[in-house]
Amino acid sequence: MSDSAFSKVLAHQPAAWVNPYKLPVLSVEPLCDLIVPPQSIRDAEERLRRFAPFLEKVFPETVPSHGIIESELREIPAMQTGLKTSGRLFLKMDSHLPIAGSVKARGGIYEVLKHAEDLALSAGILRETDDYAVLTEQKDFFRRYTVQVGSTGNLGMSIGIMSAALGFRVKIHMSADAKQWKKDLLRARGAEVIEYTDDYSRAVAEGRKLSDADPMSYFVDDEKSMDLFLGYAVAAGRLKDQLEAKNLQIDENHPLIVYLPAGVGGAPGGISYGLRQIFGDHVHCFFAEPVECPSLLLGIATRKFGEVRVQDYGLSGKTEADGLACASPSDFVTRIMTPHLSGIFTVDDDSLYHYLRMLYHTEGIEIEPSSCAAFAGPAHLSDSPETIRYCAENGLTENVLKNAVQIVWATGGSMVPPDVRLQYLEAGKK
Ligand SMILES: *Cc1c(COP(=O)(O)O)cnc(C)c1O
Question: What's this model's pTM, rounded to 2 decimal places?
Answer without folding.
Answer: 0.96
